[in-house]
Amino acid sequence: xxxxxxxxxxxxxxxxxxxxxxxxxxxxxxxxxxxAAPDKTAWxxxxxxxxxxxxxxxxxxxxxxxxxxxxxxxxxxxxxxxVSIQLPNWWEFVAVYLATTRIGAVINPLMPIFxxxxxxxxxxxxxxxxxxxxxxxxKFDYPQMxxxxxxxxxxxxxxxxxxxxxxxxxxxxxxxPALDAKMDKAALFKERRPGPDDISLLMxxxxxxxxxxGAMHTANTLVASVKTYCEGxxxxxxxxxLMASPLAHLTGFLYGLMMPIYLKSKGVLQDIWNAEExxxxxxxxxxxxxxxxxxxxxxxxxxxEVQNYDVKTFDKFVCAGAPIPAVLVNEATxxxxxxxxxxxGMTELGVATAVPPEASIEKSATTDGAPLDCxxxxxxxxxxxxxAPVKVPGLLKARGPGAFVGYLKKPEMFGTxxxxxxxxxxxxxxxxxxxxxxxxxxxxxxxxxxxxxxVAEVEQTLYRHPAIQEVAVVAMPDxxxxxxxxxxxxxxxxxxxxxxxxxxxxxxxxxAKQYLPERLEILKEMPHTPSGKIQKFKLREMAxxxxxx
Length: 549
Known about the structure:
By secondary structure, the protein is of the alpha/beta class. The chain has a domain at 453-548: ANL, C-terminal domain (GMP Synthetase, Chain A, domain 3, 2-Layer Sandwich), CATH 3.30.300.30. The strands form six sheets. It has a nine-stranded mixed β-sheet with strand order 2-1-10-9-11-12-13-14-15, sandwiched between helices. Strands 4-3-5-6 form a four-stranded parallel β-sheet, with helices on both faces. α3 runs parallel beside α12, α11 crosses α12 (250-263) and α14 (294-302) packs across α15. The longest helix is centred in the N-terminal third of the chain and has 17 residues, at 58-74.
């Protein structure tokens, strides 16, 4: 595969690069951890399909990942070849990324929920040479799916199956101890070592717009995101990191896979989300830190069984992906005793803003954080292009050391100007202290009779309703006013809600009449991306259908 990273000289020489680009690979941090504490637990992980609990020290992780690297070379993987993996949060995911890093290959993680349509496009577009899948996860046969797509994937040479029973079993192909004696490992790894500005990760955007693009990251951009995050949130090697958000999403990849190795701390992986199981792991492993989208925090807060476990070590939970309802911040703080930290980021940037741990809890309830070190954000008036005044919504632009280096085969979509400002597609406003609040995506704007409706404000207010579990408001076409508001909601167990009751509640909250949604649809389940974000493009399509009807 030919990669063409967009790395202008000014960025390579910029202050963000000087301060946060250490020119090191994740394998360098692993080697340092092995030298410092070879027997320290690196990973604890229960495979829900087999029930096996794997505990790996840093030395064991190094041995296994090096062996996988040799196995990939034996399959013909060269520098810059793409290795796609569609794996749950298992230790093998971590080891495969370390292996591809050793030999200069590029990892392409894919969400376990993806099926034929997504896989045929993503694997084909990446020209992947090897694909690694589980034999079975959540009653789905992944090898059968890939074999059925062979005609659509001419570049795919090898399918490797974890817990497989045939010749292509992961354990036979990539974990055979005989591999250690077949090659000169030291010489091979020295020859294959990639540069810190070579492409290391190809990750497709999560699909809130319905059109995934392959964002490219280097070792430097990835490490910079982890480094600024750890420093901004006061994380150290004493922390124990639990990750239930998929490692195939940048949240999980950076702060669940890379961060424990960077910190030399213990990582705990959860492959199927369950709030009670999470609490059980917190108690058993002494978890201090986790991160995920709003549904993860909501489940931890509202699941009664969580109270059966001792979670006193749980110190911080970073919530990102969408503004956290203020009521949830307060409930989680009271019930769980954790510090809820709101943050904002993207596949293209990593986490760029976060509320500092020492800030008041009100900041997490009302903002999405301030820029981390060497990150910058600005709010731009869409018409004038000038910086918007304080608390006036506009287009959110960002730049920093963790920013990506382009989309695979789509340089024209980079969306970054000559000064490094990336057009995020988000609408936001900034307060007097430099904290931002996401007001929605640029496509989320409802223009009702010529007036902009603050969608995020309406949603935040609706989250206070005792019957509502999750809510999203989108535009619904209207021949007279242009657009109307359509609210979609899921309800807490045993609760009910109709349009008149919703409107009465919003009136009680003193919501402006022109902001009130004209329609309410109750859903059994909200459409989500694998990382937990609400897929508003699907809701907009439903709202269009209502309008036509």
